[in-house]
Amino acid sequence: TTGHSTAEVRGRPLWEVLVRDVDDVRPALLLRERFCSGEAFRIEFKARRGAVCLAPAEAYWVEVDADLVADETSGRLQYVCLCRDITERRQQQHGLDEGREILAALTDNLPISLVALDARDLQVISLNRHAELEFGAADEAVAGRALTQALGPGLAELISPQVRQALGRRMPVEHEFVWESADGQRVVAARHVAVGGGGAAGPSGGAGAGAGAGAPRIVISQLRDVTQMRRAEQTLRESEQRYRELVESIDEGVFVIDPADGCYHYLSPRVHDMLGIDGFADELPPGPQLPHVLAEDQALLAAQGLRERRGESSDVMLRIRHPLHGLRW
Question: What is the pLDDT of residues 227-243, one digit of tens each?
Answer without folding.
Answer: 889 999 999 889 888 88
